[in-house]
Write a structure and sequence with these properties.
The protein is mainly α and 308 residues long. It contains 11 helices and 4 strands, in the order αββααααααααβααβ. The longest helix is centred in the first third of the chain and has 34 residues. The mean pLDDT is 90.
């Protein structure tokens, strides 16, 4: 009898041990299985990419954007999303816009060009001194041939595509001619990218007269919408998550102008005479492309220098 009790007790211990071991092993297997699953999100729990609502009153120079057309709505949404969520570039554009818009706005008004075209200049160059792969340069990204055609001096010594006042006057002339030829400011903006002939030819072939109805090259199809997206974001930066203080924005240093109608053999020496260095002179006058001003024709130039 005692032997039977001992055997029963031993078997009970064995059974409990096996059950306990199986339970522990199952938990480990379930845990291992869980770790193999993808987490719900791999970003920080507060990071979210939110779909954006398009403003219904979008317009370029007062010309309404027909967002009721499905592909127009999609193209507008694409540029708004790209320019909102490319945060670093967006913030830099906001900072630079604060620097150059105060110069552009009165010039656009002077030359009877709608204020919205300051966003075209921003879309073209980003307000940085870089030449495009095609050779376009300056704030308005003129090609050499176009700039010369409209009277800008362009050579290795002087390049007036980098002169804000002179290049803005040319841009206004070009855009107003485009509007007169094509009928709307929206088409004039598209022609700034694809050329008047290119836009005219496609409109005629397709028998349409609106930018939003035409099938155009991909770059031109995105072009006007990028301008519109920049207008919307820079006009309402906090609405799109851009947070900054006034002191964070860039500002252009105040200058005065000196008139020069002779050659300057050394611009570094010239700069020192006005309490600045060579780099500061070039920042204020990017149209000066070398360390000298040839001026064989005794042309009158206006050079910006610091206020006294």
């Amino acid at each position: 009898m005692k032997t039977a009790k001992r055997i029963f007790s031993f078997l009970s211990v064995v059974i409990v041990t096996v059950l306990f071991y199986n339970a522990i092993n199952k938990k480990h297997l379930e845990k291992d299985s869980d770790t193999s699953k993808e987490p719900e999100t791999q970003t920080h729990k507060t990071y979210k990419i939110k779909s954006l609502k398009l403003p219904e009153n979008l317009n370029l120079a007062g010309e309404r954007v027909p967002l009721e057309i499905p592909d127009v709505r999609e193209r507008m949404e694409r540029e708004l999303l790209v320019n909102t969520y490319w945060q670093s570039n967006g913030l830099l554009l906001i900072k630079r816009a604060n620097k150059y818009f105060p110069i552009l706005e009165p010039l656009l008004k002077k030359y009877n060009l709608p204020d919205d075209f300051k966003f075209l200049a921003l879309a073209e160059s980003g307000f940085i001194d870089e030449t495009s792969s095609a050779g376009a340069a300056g704030m308005w990204h003129f090609m050499k041939t176009t700039g010369k055609e409209y009277g800008l001096e362009i050579n290795s010594n002087v390049d007036e595509r980098y002169d804000i006042e002179k290049s803005t006057k040319v841009a206004a002339e070009y855009l107003k001619k485009s509007k007169e030829r094509l009928g709307t400011w929206t088409l004039a903006a598209a022609a700034y990218n694809a050329g008047n002939y290119g836009i005219s030819k496609r409109l005629k072939t397709q028998q349409v007269n609106s930018y939003y109805d035409a099938l155009l090259p991909n770059e031109t199809e995105r072009y006007v919408f990028r301008i519109l997206a920049l207008k919307e974001i820079i006009t309402n930066p906090k609405k799109y998550g851009f947070v900054f203080e006034e002191k964070d924005l860039y500002k252009l240093e105040e200058s005065r102008t000196v008139k020069v109608d002779t050659a300057i053999s050394n611009l570094a020496v010239f700069a020192k005479g006005f309490s600045m260095n060579y780099k500061e002179l070039k920042i204020r006058n990017p149209w000066l492309r070398e360390n000298k001003l040839n001026n064989k024709s005794r042309k009158l130039y206006h050079i910006k220098v610091p206020l006294e």
